[in-house]
Design brief:
about 250 residues; alpha/beta; seven-stranded mixed β-sheet; 14 strands; about 30% strand
Length: about 250
């Protein structure tokens, strides 16, 4: 099982438009962050977590020739804005793409991409088969079992996903005890860590480190990173053993 970080930035990405801070002007490629997404490869299957506005660029950069399913965490624009760019997979393989989403995400997709779900479709629009998912139930996707983890992004429910001993959690601020139980015994935990100062809807660095210390995965990788966290090289010096900042293109095996 391999996880590829397609994007590790927050909703504005890095560099931020019009910003000249030391992070946005950094020459370190690890400080260039597209919007947050990841791809899990299991045997010959590719499963993508979220299709943000940089989805096309991410697929081209990683030379992905097939996506077997998309699993959505939540309905914010930086996580759904690239769904139209699934079309090449439709055309190449002549079949709909399987999408797994909560009811709230489906409402947003049907609003933003009304033409995809229209009874009278225009030729060439994306083709999808949409599947309901619930945080109380594990589900199977082409032989791979995913367990949803419900977190709160301020007041918005967001789904993380665990498969085997790997878990991917983003846009979290609080996690209930019964959901934390689903994150025990991990080899790899991916978690959001937005910035140094506290934030109303995201873990900051201190909170993310505290959760890692509580859950004790073998390895942890932080994502959904803002330019306000600091430069990759400098922040990495502050992290304990077994904890790393993810960066775009990083691949982790489990």
């Amino acid at each position: 099982m391999k996880l590829t970080f397609l994007g590790t930035g927050t909703s504005q990405g890095i560099p931020v438009i019009g910003c000249g801070c030391e992070v946005c002007s950094s020459d370190d490629p690890r400080d260039k962050r597209l919007r947050t997404s990841a791809m899990l490869s299991v045997r010959d299957k590719n499963f993508v977590f979220d299709t943000g506005p940089d989805f096309r660029q991410q697929m081209l950069r990683e030379r992905v020739d097939n996506v077997h399913a998309v699993l959505y965490t939540h309905e914010h624009k930086d996580h759904i804005a690239g769904m139209d760019d699934i079309r090449p997979f439709n055309f190449k393989y002549r079949k709909p793409l399987e999408i797994y989403a909560s009811e709230a995400v489906q409402v947003a997709l049907k609003r933003e991409y009304h033409y995809v779900f229209s009874d009278d479709k225009y030729p060439g629009v994306p083709e999808v088969n949409i599947h309901d998912i619930f945080h109380t139930e594990s589900f199977d996707v082409q032989g791979v079992t995913f367990t949803p983890i419900r977190v709160l992004h301020y007041k918005m429910p967001v789904l993380g996903f665990r498969t085997g001993n790997l878990a991917y959690v983003t846009d979290a601020k609080t996690i209930a005890p019964e959901e934390k139980d689903k994150l025990c015994g991990l080899d790899v935990l991916v978690l959001n860590a937005l910035r140094i100062k506290p934030h109303i809807s995201h873990f900051n660095l201190e909170e993310a480190l505290a959760l890692v210390d509580e859950l004790r995965p073998r390895r942890a990788y932080f994502t959904h990173i803002s330019h306000l966290l600091g430069r990759h090289e400098e922040v990495s010096k502050l992290l304990p053993e077994g904890v790393e900042l993810a960066f775009d293109g990083l691949q982790v095996t489990c």
